[in-house]
Amino acid sequence: MECHVYYEGDDDPDKCTARRLEKFDEAILYRSMDQVPYGIVLNPHAERALSPADREDGLGTVVALDCSWESAEAASFRMNGVHRALPFLVAANPVNFGRPFRLTTAEALAGALSILGEPDRAAELLEPFRWGETFLELNAEPLRRYGECADSSEVVAVQDDYLADEE
Length: 167
Fold this sequence. Notes:
It catalyses: an N(1)-methylpseudouridine in rRNA + S-adenosyl-L-methionine = N(1)-methyl-N(3)-[(3S)-3-amino-3-carboxypropyl]pseudouridine in rRNA + S-methyl-5'-thioadenosine + H(+). It holds the Pfam family Fer4_RLI. Residues 3-25 form the RNase L inhibitor RLI-like possible metal-binding domain. It is found in: Cytoplasm. The chain contains 6 helices and 5 strands, in the order βαββββααααα. By secondary structure, it is α/β, with parallel strands linked by helices. Strands 2-1-4-3-5 form a 5-stranded parallel sheet, covered by helices on one side. It has helices at residues 17-23, 105-115, 119-126, 132-138, 140-147, 152-166; strands at 2-7, 28-30, 39-42, 61-66, 81-84. The radius of gyration is 14 Å and the shape is globular. Helix content is 34%, strand content 14%.
């Protein structure tokens, strides 16, 4: 699967995972929303969770938005595509380590690839990051379980188990 990123450029360039993905030819960055190809848009405001069924739609593209968490509002996700929310995953990056749902762009793309049946591609995507393998280890069980789900409603049911454990 191809990884594409709409890049707003409002984060520290030295810590930007999207820029590092571009540097290592793991993702294509776009600075204009009009240029972003149609695909599965990772959107935390989406009504449906990402599931393996989304791969069956024949979309070979995953799209992420790279922006500061402070500006990640629903209006920022106006890209064309099939919008899906990532289920419960825990960050491994140094800034948000251990915090659920506070993923970097690289973590979000890797999580999506794993759920969509491409765990090897997810591991490859995270190779440029010291904490990349840690992300996959921390989330090994949920990623496996999400990947076994038939559709979005099953993913949400699995997510509910993890959210209940968090409380």
